[in-house]
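Late entry, evening session. Most of the bench is empty. Finally got around to the prediction I had been postponing all week. Sequence below, unchanged from the version circulated by S.P.
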Amino acid sequence: MPGNAMAAIERIGQNYQATRIIVFTANSSIETAIQALNYGVTGYVLKGSSADDLHEAIRVVHDGDTFITAGFATKVMMAMKTADLRRRTQAQKRLSLREEQIVRHLMRGSTNREIAACLDITETTVKHYMTMLMHKLDARNRVEVVLAAQKLNVIADGGANRGMSGRFK
């Protein structure tokens, strides 16, 4: 198909939701297949499939189900499960407002005592949050908490742009 097939699929999926789309392609990219399925494709048939497979795809999609070329379907399903697991893991790593505040102070190199004073909480409470942050971010120390938070982009206000000079205890 000349032009951007994915853009066409996306437009059809958005504007004609009752329309069922079968992609017949030589493209065996798992990412492309997942993108097509997310845009509303209900059939993904690889060129090189038998005529029987193509007829089966038409019948299955017509009946309201989804068809993906055998063998390739397993790869697509595994990739989708992995992506879903990754999303759920990321969701579990979302920080509370207080955890974000503590990470911001860590990025400045603040000690537990300084964090406690700034946030008007006890040092024991800061230590509790540190334990929770290390567990949640799979970190072994303060520096790893900061690095994990930066890597996950969990600090929304750009605290990572501040220098990390200072103490890490």
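Two things to note before I forget:
Helices lie at 5-15, 30-38, 51-62, 72-92, 97-107, 112-119, 123-136, 142-152.
Residues 109 and 166 are 4 Å apart (CA to CA).
Will write this up properly tomorrow.
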